[in-house]
């Protein structure tokens, strides 16, 4: 039986660590940090951990409509999306995820760009 990326990487505890590292990078980045001013980061990390888990084949799901709706008001531009994607990739690599799994997750992120970018 084939394991999902979620299972191979160690499940929710690893995803949570990756997402926490990702947000450490985001909050230090001049392009990304302004998007998170005033955001409850514990809640944000929880939501993002569930989303990344879903992308990895884990036990959560997010619809395209939901992603589009929550990002529409943020005015995210293409540059910010690219920066976000690179920081996420770096966080996964920092946690020793297999290159093929990182590539697969990044593919899933990139195909959702149109749902996140609104500026």
Describe, in plain words, how this protein is organized in 3D:
The protein is mostly helical and 119 residues long. The protein has seven helices and no strands. 66% of the residues lie in helices and 0% in strands. 21% of the residues are buried. The mean pLDDT is 95.
Assign an overall shape. globular
Low-confidence stretches are: none
Number of helices: 7
- What is the string of helix and strand elements? HHHHHHH
Estimated structural class = mainly alpha
Approximate helicity band: 55-70%
Rg, Cα atoms, Å: 14 Å
**Could you give a short account of the major beta sheet?**
none
Label this structure with key terms.
mainly alpha, 66% helix, 7 helices
Topology, pairings included?
Blueprint: H1 5-9, H2 12-28, H3 41-55, H4 64-72, H5 78-94, H6 99-110, H7 113-116
Helix pairs in contact: 2-3, 2-5, 5-6
Q: Short description, anyone?
A:
Helices cover 66% and strands 0% of the residues.
